[in-house]
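ok so i was messing around last nite and threw this chain in just to see what happens. nothing serious, just curious
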Amino acid sequence: MSKTTIPVSSALTQVRYEIRGRLARRAQELERQGYEIISLNIGNPGVFGFRTPETMRLAMIQNLANAEGYCHQQGIFPAREAVVMQQQERGVRDVSVEDVFIGNGVSELIDLALRALLEPGDEVLVPSPDYPLWTAAVTLNGGTAVHYPCRPERDFVPEPAEIERLISRRTRAIVVINPNNPTGAVYPRATLEAIARMAERHRLVVFADEIYDQMTYDGAEFVPMATLVHDTLCGTLSGLSKVYRACGYRVGWAVFSGTRERAQGYLQGLELLSSLRLCSNVPGQWAVQTALGGHQSVRELVSPGGRLYQSRQAIVDAVNASPWLRLQPPRGAMYCFIGVDDEALPGFDDERFALELLEQRHVLVAPGVSFNVPYRNHFRITNLPDADTLTVVFERIAAQLELEAARAVTRGGLRLVQ
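result:
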């Protein structure tokens, strides 16, 4: 029998998805050994006791008889119609069901949308930090991700003029993640308008990742990108997984607006790719109309007194009480991108810290470098746990940071912290 090693595809050489990578695998090993791990690396509402609204479950159950065969490659009509109605209510008037593609979550649609667009060497502007699937999908489809900075000192809001300087003749698209994962930034209208005008000037496709569109805090205004983009193509991506706490349903959608007449070849290519995978999960699609047209229970969760709001506040309070940690309070989404004062803790390394926090304190976080940033002093946690659990988490983080401080003293580089 041959002992030749089966090689991995070279296409994966530059692909990273550390959120479910080495640390997550080690956490599973520790759990198999009997340890209880507090896993804060993934925004998975069901793990923390959040339930999909009952009306959505009932809509899916009652339509199971209509969900046993393949459906149209772009999705069932009631689901696509509900997406259109939501867009129209938000001020996007020129869309129809023909402009909507339903996918097995937004993740699949990101891959299909880029595969239909890119030639080898084409560039896509992607935020840094980003949700790493965007960078990975650009790479896997032969493109080059060019990261535009969303700097901590600017509250993680990008500077449009800085983005424009990165545009080259190979630039095909720009990705806007708003509300942002991992930072929780909600972009001001003026910033989004400037990005829209820039995209129109350079004929860039705009991919607006708006999966957290209704998760905002303290009056932050979410502005749908499609209401601002008119003279180029805009693809808005969203789904059931986060706002509706239905990750396992695997239902997302992409709706295209703007100058579709100049994008017919691209949209036909996207339909072809949709046809090749036959269709997306049909039972889950029957929950879309009820979800988008029914009571939006997420509003209670993100309002003062609501669980997501209170958990977020618990994180903000814990960071404010720490001599080592820094945080721009998130204005949206379900994450906090926490910074460590590396002047107070010189030599801090986010990957080492995350591994030691897991091994010694049994808390799993995602190190900042997972999100394609050039610095190593951040980590991301989700605010899905309840406030009591988060109190325990930050006690363990504080204990680990004390060890970091002791190391810094040993190296002779610790700055006294008042």
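not much to say yet. The chain is about 35% helix and 15% strand.
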